[in-house]
Structures are given as C-alpha cells and as structure tokens.
Amino acid sequence: MTTSAVELRGIEKRFPGVIANHDVNLQIAPGTVHALVGENGAGKSTLMKILYGVQKPDAGTITINGETVEFSTPSDAIAQGIGMVFQHFMLADNLTVLENVVLGAEKLHGTGAKARAEVRAISDRFGFGLDPDVLVESLGVAARQRLEILKVLYRGAKIIILDEPTAVLVPQEVDALFANLNGLKEQGHTLLFISHKLDEVLAVADAITVMRRGTTVGDPDPSSVTKRQLAELMVGTELPSPATDESTVTDVVQLSVEQLTMIDEFGRTILDGIDLQIHRGEVVGIAGVEGNGQTELVEGILAMRPTQGTVRLGGDDMSGWATRKRRAAGVGYIPEDRHRHGLLLDSPLWENRILGHAYEEVAVKRGWINRGGARQDSERIVDQYDVRTPGIDTMARALSGGNQQKFIVGRELSGEPSLLIAAHPTRGVDVGAQAAIWDQIKEARRAGLAVLLISADLDELIGLSDRIEVILRGRLVGTFDPRTVTPQDLGEAMTGGQEEA
Amino acid sequence: MTRLRNIAIALAAPLLAIVFSLAVTSLVIQISGGSASDFISILFSWPADRLLVNIANQTSLIYLSALAAAVGFRMNLFNIGVEGQYRMAAYAGALFAGAAFLPGALNVIGALLVAVAVGAAWAGIAGLLRVTRGVSEVISTIMLNAIAITITGYLINTYGIKAGDSRRTEAIPESSQVPGWQPFDKAAGEVWTLGLLAVIAGVSFWLVLNKTRFGFDLRATGQSESAAIASGVNSKKMTMVTLLISGGIAGLIWMPSLFGSAHYYGTTFQAGLGFTGIAVALLGRNRALPIAFAALLFAYLNEQSNRLTIEAGISVEVIQITQGIIVLAVVIAYELVRRYRLRAEEREVAQAPRPGATTEEVSA
C-alpha cells in the first residue's frame, strides 16, 4: 500500500464551550480527488484550518507523505506542499494576474521575466488560459478561481484544499473546474474538495469522507454510494427513541401560512406557494438540504424580506405587518445565525434582553428603556436557563456559543410568545446546552406554544417534531410522521427522491 | 471594583494620547528650529480673560458640531456634511432673523427653527439618496459641502447687502439680539446665552440615545444592522431619521454666535467647525459627556495657539498637528482598551461559577 498524502489521526479541537472536532480520522491517497462532505457546522472548516496551519489541534497527529508534522502557521503548511483555495477569493482587483501571483512569493522567481514565464508555464500545463498581464478586475469568477489555484501551484503546492469551490460557479463553469481538477490529479497532485453538494461530490471524487457533529462518520465508496445514502450519513441515521411524551397538539391553528411566495431581486423564485399550518402545542419540523428555502421561509414569516401570500397568527392577518409588529404579536425567534441576527455582541447581556423585545413592558415602558426591568429579567434568564456568565453586565461576545444560545432561547421564550420560530436552535452548541435547549422547547410546547423548527439535524427533527415537512427548491414536498419515518424516506424526499433513484 | 478599573482605563487612554501628542508636537517644533519649552509654557499658562470667554463660546459651537457628527456615528452613518449643513442653516437663519417677520424673542425662536429645518433638509438629501439609490452618505455629504459653499456664496453675492468690500445679510434687529453674560470687563467680551443650546442638545442626546427605545434602535443598528432588522427596526427609516437629526443639530451650530455677536451672515461667519466636530466626536467616543470635554480641549488649544506666533514665533498651525495626533492616538488607544476589556471578560467568563450564585458573590 502506498503512503497516504495526508493522514489525520484522532484530531481534536475545542473552543470555549464547543467541541469543534473530535476523533477525526482522514486518509487521503496521493493523486486523488478526495471529497470532505458535511452540513454547515459539522466541523469541516475547523478541520481545514488545522490542516492549513491556521489553528493548532488540541490532540491528534497530522502526517504528510508519511512524515509526522506540526504546523504553527500557514507558512509551515505551504512549506510541506499544502495549498488552500478559499471560497472568498483573496485577490487584488487593481493588480495583474502576475502581480497577484507573485505577491507574497517574490522570493521564488522574483517579479520579472522569470516569474512571468513560470506563470505562463503553469497556466499552459493545466489549460487555465490565464494571461499574466491581464488586470484581475477584468476576469470573471471562474477565471479568478483558476488564478487562486495557480497561486497555490506557483508556491509549489502538491496537496490542494478547495473550500466549496463550486459555490460561486454556474454549472458550465463547474464542469470546466472539474476538468481542471482532473488535469491536476493526472499530474500527480492531491486534491481535498470540500462541499455539501452531493451531485458534484459524486461526479468528481475518488474517495469521500463524511463529517457530522465534529467527527468523521464514514468513508463511503463513491462508485457505489447513492446520493440518498450520503444525505443520510450527513444528517445522521441513528434514530433517537421516539418521543415518549404525549402529544400536546391541539385543534387550534396558531400559524397559518397560505401561498407564501418569495421572488428575489434577480427574479428567481425562492419560495413557491408554501402552505403551512401549525397548531397550538405542535412542533412542525422543516427538513431539507440547506439552501432550499428554509432561511427564506423564516425571513418571510417575519417580514424581514418581502413576500406574497398570507400569514395569519391566531386570528390576526399579519400579511401587511412589519417585522416589529409581527414579533410583538407573540412570535419568538431563535435565529439561524445568532451573531448576525440574535445578539448585539458588544453590548452587555441586559441590553441584549431588549433586542427584538422593545415592545415588552419589561424592556421598554412608554418609549423609555426599562433598565431595572430588563436587568431583573436578564438575571432571571441567566438563572433559569443556566447561562454561564459572571453577570448580566458581561458583553455578549465574551460568552461561549452555547451560553449565548441559551440566553437567546430564554429571551425568546419570555413574554409568552404564541409561536416560536427556531432555526437550527442547537447548531454549534455543546451537548449539554443542546439537551437543555431541547427540554425547554418541549416544555414550552406543553404549555401550548406552536413551534416552527428548522434543522439540518435529523435527530433533532425526529426527537422534537410532531410533524415533519420536507422543503425542496422552495416548495413543501412531503409530510412525515416522525414516529414512523425512516431516514431513507426523508433522504429521498430531501434530495428529490424518485427522479434520481 | 471592575467598574472602577474600567473607568480608570477609560480616562487613562485620552490622557496618554494628549501627553503623547504634546511630546510629538514639541519634537516637531524643536526640529524645525522653534522652542519646545516656549510652546509648552504658553500652552499651559492661564489664558487671559478675553481668551477664557472665547474658549467658553467656541466650546459650545464645537460641541454642537460634534454632537451632530456623533448621532450619525452611533449608527455607523458617516455624516461628513455637517460643514455644509450648518453653513446652509446659518445663512437661512440669518436671513430669516434679519427679515424680522416676527418681533423680539419670537424672531429668535423662528430663526432657530428655520436653521434646524434647513440643516435637516440638507442632510436629508444625502439620506434620500442613500435609502432610495444606495448612494454612500460619505460621498454625497462631501459633495453637498461643496454645493453649500457655492450656493451660499452665490446667494450672498446676488442678494446680500453691500457692506464695504463684501456683502452680507441684513443685520438682526436689536430687539432680537440676545445679550450675553459678561464675566469680566467689557473688553473681554460676552459669553453667548445661546451657548446653552449646546447644554440642552447634550442632555437630550444622552437621554434619547441611552434611555429611549428610539435610541436603543439607533445604537442597535449601529452595532449590527442585521440584528437590528431582525429585531424589527426599519433600517431605511432609521437612516433617514438619524440623518435628519444630525443635520438638525448641525443647523444650530452657528446660532449662538449669530445672535450673540455676529448679528448677520457675512465675513463674520466661522467656517470649518463641521470638520472640527468630526474629530471631537471621535475623541469623545461619540458619548455626550466625553465629547463635552473633548470640545473644551479643542477650544482651549485653538485659543491658546493664537498666542504662539506673537509670543514665541511659532506657527499657529502646529496646534493642528497636536490635535491630529491626539485623535489618531486616542483611536488606537480606545481599540487597545476595547480588546483588553474583552480579553479580561473572557477570562472572567471562563472562571464563572454556576449561575445561581448571587451577583454579590460573583463580583466579590
């Protein structure tokens, strides 16, 4: 057996309150395209950063071409022949191709004729079609990506990491990229391809490793695995014991969405006639591969983005209401991205109690901030929801992700909401906080709350939901009973099932 | 305990910045052949009565200008156009007051309202461009500054009354001139009564920003627009309202001077305050009370520097080096303090006991 180009053993990386990677094992054979797949938050990016020397693992070993190495900085990784192509290009628009390539690598071949010849040679060898003297601002996205690859090749990379390289490309460009990748492979380069687009992974990869919840969970053979099986691996196949607590679903409809349609600024249909009803005491889970309209469904219901269609809460038609009025009517919102939508990171916790709740008596009285009330209620949340913090004057930024999330959950369950929209409520939080958040959602449901749960985690969906709806390309395409559903059913519905099976 | 430490750090940063900038300026003076010791001794000598009055008056103008800039800064709007806004407002206010449509004090109030409205409207143009067309307010307000200078220049040259070599607006009738307070002899001049506008504006600024829902929304938008939108803030409306407020405050900047001593818009108009205000707002971290100290400091340095040429042969402009370095140094110092505090808090969080412990135990 040949030596692996890259071998990771038992990699572990912890951040305060979160285990980003644990027990990660990855073996990449030389001269192959190896795909690393997993949902957002599965730990792919942390692993990449470890392999590229941006972060140091807390435990585990990295072996490159049979030699155990330790990286302190990316330059150590580059010295070992590892290159990385980031999803967001790092190019200077007002410089030429050549200047961008030599920038920071002037010592290799200088900046003149020798460097120009080298850039030409690489471009020709792999059919990149890049002219060294063209300004980068005149290049399209695909050409810029080839330039990024050229940059790492110029620096002598034999092992190239590509972070979701197809995210920015149109289909024809994707095919061209894959042709380039095959060209690289034939000339002996090793490629690590990170993605969560399963079609692409199956089209290009010689080997696949799946990550879930911070660890590697399998190495399916790309020649025999189906898209459905991959999806199941990504979201987790171990079924939790079906929720034993009794159903609390009532007959009263709390949220009623009719024909909700969203067209984005480019004229694309993002949501297509969504009909959805949630009863009091009911948790409805939305399952789907990311990017099929989950985020937009939430933002549409909250009027954060314009939609057509009707949204009713209880007896009120909210369709014409702005975000604040909708939230004030009793909609709690646990956002998918707590840093962007849920917190003021540089404000103390007690001020964060007011964020999004400026209509509650406890936060604002007749237009004036109720400092005492907000502080007192923040203390209550910290106490009741086990938020680990020295006090309510601590900046939100200083808290770990799990504790930030517990505070948000506590805040959103305050003020007696009648509907809770929970988008990935336990993403990126540690196991302890996860269990606590699940318990709180269950308890609120028992008290009559209607819950819209968006999650990429099948365990979470099945364990919490009374009903699961599957979203695909902006439409609800299937309804399942979590007590009887199998991961195969869900996987099939999530990926458009029959058409490819 | 933590609170005391935080206050001490917050005070240390600007003080060190001042010391540092004085040292650099001294060095510059010494290198260019001047006497640094003269510079320091003049700067720190007690100002004459006349200068004390000027310092008080200038502080109020600079403070208003800094508040106008700070309102925008607090929600990440860079209103660079205070300069143009207060120029337009000063002209309009002087024109209105000079026309004497209303008697006595009513004329003063009317002129103030006109000035606020014109300042707000001038800023509102930038606001409209931003919310409807996405034009950066930095660009539009800078351009509006140039337009304001041209427009007021044209209007005064076309419609102004001739006074010697120059033209000006009609003088305010005596019944509408606002007498000041004369702390020393007559030659030292008067402290303008309308300087109190600065106090009122400062207190209102603090109240509105820190104590009201509107202020909370404004600060939230400044910290994280995405979080503010998710919390139900209408960011376009917020942008518009904030720019109107900023321009409205800008409209007041020159009013104490107009009613206190200038009495007409012409050669007496004091330009440049809009830019001073931006630096002072930065120095005062966009907070009401610190800005007041920063305005006082700038007014003090400006007035004291007038003596440099006469008494030590040092160019007045060196004081701008001092002021520039203070602002630069303080911006860096604040960022260092911010990072230090965050690290300190993260350490505290790491050692935090399980919740349930009382706050007293935690802070003890």
From TrEMBL, chain A:
Domain ABC transporter: 6-238, 255-498
Signal peptide region: none
PROSITE patterns: ABC_TRANSPORTER_1 (PS00211), ABC_TRANSPORTER_2 (PS50893)
SUPFAM superfamilies reported for this sequence: P-loop containing nucleoside triphosphate hydrolases
Transmembrane intervals: none
Sorted UniProt keywords: ATP-binding, Cell membrane, Membrane, Nucleotide-binding, Repeat, Translocase, Transport
Major localisation: membrane
GO CC, one annotated term: plasma membrane
Listed SMART domains: AAA
Family matches, as InterPro entries: AAA+_ATPase (IPR003593), ABC_carbohydrate_import_ATPase (IPR050107), ABC_transporter-like_ATP-bd (IPR003439), ABC_transporter-like_CS (IPR017871), P-loop_NTPase (IPR027417)
Subcellular location: Cell membrane
Pfam families the UniProt entry points to: ABC_tran
One GO MF term attached to the UniProt entry: ATP binding
Entries under Gene3D superfamilies matching the protein: P-loop containing nucleotide triphosphate hydrolases
Topology of the protein relative to the lipid bilayer: Peripheral membrane protein
UniProt keyword Secreted present: no
PANTHER family in the cross-refs: CARBOHYDRATE TRANSPORT ATP-BINDING PROTEIN MG119-RELATED, GALACTOFURANOSE TRANSPORTER ATP-BINDING PROTEIN YTFR
Protein name according to UniProt: ABC transporter ATP-binding protein
Species of provenance: Mumia zhuanghuii
From TrEMBL, chain B:
A Pfam family of this chain: BPD_transp_2
Keywords on record: Cell membrane, Membrane, Transmembrane, Transmembrane helix
Taxonomic superkingdom: Bacteria
A molecular-function term among this protein's GO annotations: transmembrane transporter activity
Keyword Metal-binding: no
Listed transmembrane segments: 60-77, 89-106, 112-131, 138-156, 191-209, 238-256, 288-306, 318-337
Topology of the protein relative to the lipid bilayer: Multi-pass membrane protein
Protein name: ABC transporter permease
